[in-house]
Amino acid sequence: MTTKKTGNRPKQLLTKLEFKLEAGIFAARWILVPAYLVLVLTVAVLTYKTCEEFVQLVLHLQLFNESQAILQALTIVDMVLVLNLLLMVLFVGYINFISKIHTDKQEDWPDWMNHLGYSGLKVQLLGSVIAVATIQLLRTFIELSNAANANFERLVWQVVIYVVFVVAVFLIATVNWINRRNTDVIAKSNHRSRASVTSSEAESVADEL
Question: Which of 10, 79, 83, 128 is deepest in the core (most CB within 10 A)?
Fold first, then answer.
């Protein structure tokens, strides 16, 4: 009996050490919290800059011509799109990598928070980046129409980058669609195999009766 207990002690010590090591690795996710707090502060700073751009638009409303007013409005839209992008990364990243968000007002949750995972986040991020790039292209077109010396090389590079983003979104969305389709096929085959096993067991019970 004493030998058995002595032999089990190393296993118990290894089990405890493994449990503490895994608990420490799992708790390491909280190291990311300061990074997400930085995102919150970034949202606050960009919100202030958005309000500042709006104040500039109101103060210079009489001085701006139509193109300048549109450029200022596009700047505000651009900043709001970036804010949406930051919030998306903040919420989805925190939920997927740190902890669930516990709040009393579930009805205030955005719909995408319930079903958007990490793979879907990549598509949404690239979609938001494309939206921001679209605003930048519009601003460039307006600036070129007003500029005496148009920089067409800048416009070409922006169009090339925009096309690259569109192709990347298409490829990632296609990969996600293939993965979902394979998952559905596997789930259906498992369901059919369970149903066939259940029916065969029912037939064997009926034969025994």
Answer: 79
